[in-house]
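ugh ok so i messed up the first submission bc i forgot one of the chains. this is the corrected input, ALL of the components this time, i swear. 763 residues overall. if the numbers dont match what u have on ur side tell me asap before i send this to the collaborators (the ones from the other lab, u know who)
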Amino acid sequence: MTNKIYRSIIFTSMSVLIISLILIMGIIFGLFEEQTIRELKNEANYIAYSIEKNGTSFFDDFDKNDNRITLVSEDGSVIADTAADANTLDNHLDRKEIQLAIQNGSGTEIRYSETLTEKTIYYALKLSDGSILRVSTTQYTIITVLLGLVQPLIIVLILALIFTFFMSSKISKSIINPINNINLDDPENNDTYEELTPFLSKIATQKNTIKKQLDEAYQMQNEFKLITDNMSEGLLIIDNKTNLLSYNSAALKLLKAENTDGKSVLTLNRTQSFRDVINKVLSGHRAENKMQYEDMVYNLIANPVVENNNVIGAVIIIIDITESAEREELRREFTANVSHELKTPLTSISGFAELMKDGTTPAETVKDFSKSIYDESQRLISLVNDIIKISELDEKNIEYTHESVDLYELSGEVINRLKHAAEKKNITISLFGDTGIVYGVRKILDEMIFNICDNAIKYNKQDGAVDIIITSTDNKVKLSVRDTGIGIPYSEQNRIFERFYRVDKGRSKAVGGTGLGLSIVKHGALYHNAEISVDSIVDKGTTITITFNKY
Amino acid sequence: MRNRFDEQLQTLNTELITMGALCEEAISNAVKYLIENNESLKNDVYDTDRQIDQKERDIENLCMRLLLMQQPVASDLRKISSALKMISDMERIGDQASDIAEIAHFVNISGYTTQVHIEEMAKLTIKMVTDSIDSFVKTDIEIAKNVIEQDNNVDEMFIKIKNELILGIQTGHDNAEALLDLMMIAKYFERIGDHAENIAEWVIYSITGRHK
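and heres the new structure output, hopefully the right one now
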């Protein structure tokens, strides 16, 4: 900037200097020449007058340093001259001023020396006797004057250069310093010259716009992050080179991976199903696949991101379906179990009936068969009943009448009903404790106690014992059923509440029952918000405790 | 130019991960086939082996192109040269997985006393392969060193199995031919372990520049 200013100032001052020099010289020299010619004319007139009066003697005492005066005769020969000996000079007839004087009475002529450094101005006047008087004076030409001016000009130039240097640096500083000192964080509050104001206000508005847009972008990013980070589904965004562009924390958690910024998504997971999904989606098709990873099951859904018919990336969503996969597995198992359990008694019934159909079976056997058919039907009925009960409990929306139920009294009723079964194995059932009032559904509570006690008898040993203990505290009522039976191995304890689950599958037929008893208990407890705990030692006995909340 | 190089290196990385994943698949399917004898698994192994061979050629081409056209130096050069080494180890793992599947076609592992140990050895080698690929994916020297350690366990297990098989042949209770087949299978596992160890060593080389 300083340089530019410096150069332009120099250029301007130089051109001003040169132009003014030329103009001044031109004008002054013109005027000067005219003046000289006029003076020459006057001098010539005086001399002519003196010559006409006194003759040529005038030449003898003429000051030689003054203008040169020549007297030329009519035929051109020099009669007298103040600067040189008249005899040495050649004929002057061909000189232009002489010619002009002969023709017009007077003539002016300017001649330049060979080197152009000097010029001579001639004025010739025709005297009355026909001879011609010529006065001439020599001057420096413009060039000589200019050459003479070189030295002062150079001094002026140097002064100009120095002055310009200081000036330009000062100007540029005064231009640039305010710009340098602008506080761009607050463009509108600056002490600058007014030419900068529009510039600064423009910066200020743009600054505000940028800030607003950035804020918006940040907010959107934050929103996006907030949404994606609070998703339980994993989200991955990749480019078409499989590089990971974005992800949420759930994705990393589900894939059990660490932070891998900017790397290939395959570093997170490289199982076949995952790779298949990536390959398919990057070829431009929506992909969906189940992925088994360690003990989890995920559903991968991937959508390609298409721009101008090119796949530029993909969005992958990972959904944890482990639980629903497990549930589906359970449901399948349940259906299979139900069909199996239903089919077994029906097969027996159908078999016995087929044998009796012909009528050839002896009456005694028919009796036996009928009993078997009856037993199997009973089993079928109780099974269907149990399934209905469980389905009812599953369907939460069935309305039951809630009432206050005394568990102690209810347990007494159950014991009465089970007395007969207990006597067969010589099992003593005893009821301990005091009234424990719960607010609930009598039918379900009855079912629960009955099933637990029924199991306590069924899986008991000969001459065993079943104790029902009811204790109530300030806000809880506890019902424990303790038996001296075969016990449940620890590893099976959390499975016994599953439908149709049997610890000893081989014995189930002998013991009877539907395999749904404890499942009903569990559902009943869930219905009443009660907790069940199992405490069992193999071959020593089992205690099942249900803890109800008092209302 | 430089961008393109980085992109190609990235591609090399992804391709290697894919090839590693294929190896894991090949060997785990081979083991599954050995235990379950499900015929479709065998074809899976063969298919995966073919894919591995194809990948080896692809990656080799890519490496050659990178070497010739980009003339990489320092860590880039190490990465590419170790990649070239690694793919041949991976390719061998694929081959041996299909060899195991081939033998498994004729011998049913269940019922032999050494079954437990072979299954355990299979588990160990699968873990070695997985870990060696993991060490590459995560550029983690610790995992790589761990893989090299694990090879000792696999070698020990091989000697154990060998002794059991010798005993089996000596007592003459079992079919000696089947026992030899089992021996071969154990040997293949041992070799796979060695290849996994090699991969781990190359991973260490590509990171540190030192190779044992």
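quick check: Chain A has five domains: 2-147, 188-229, 231-320, 325-390, 399-549. that seems consistent at least. Chain A has twelve helices and 17 strands.
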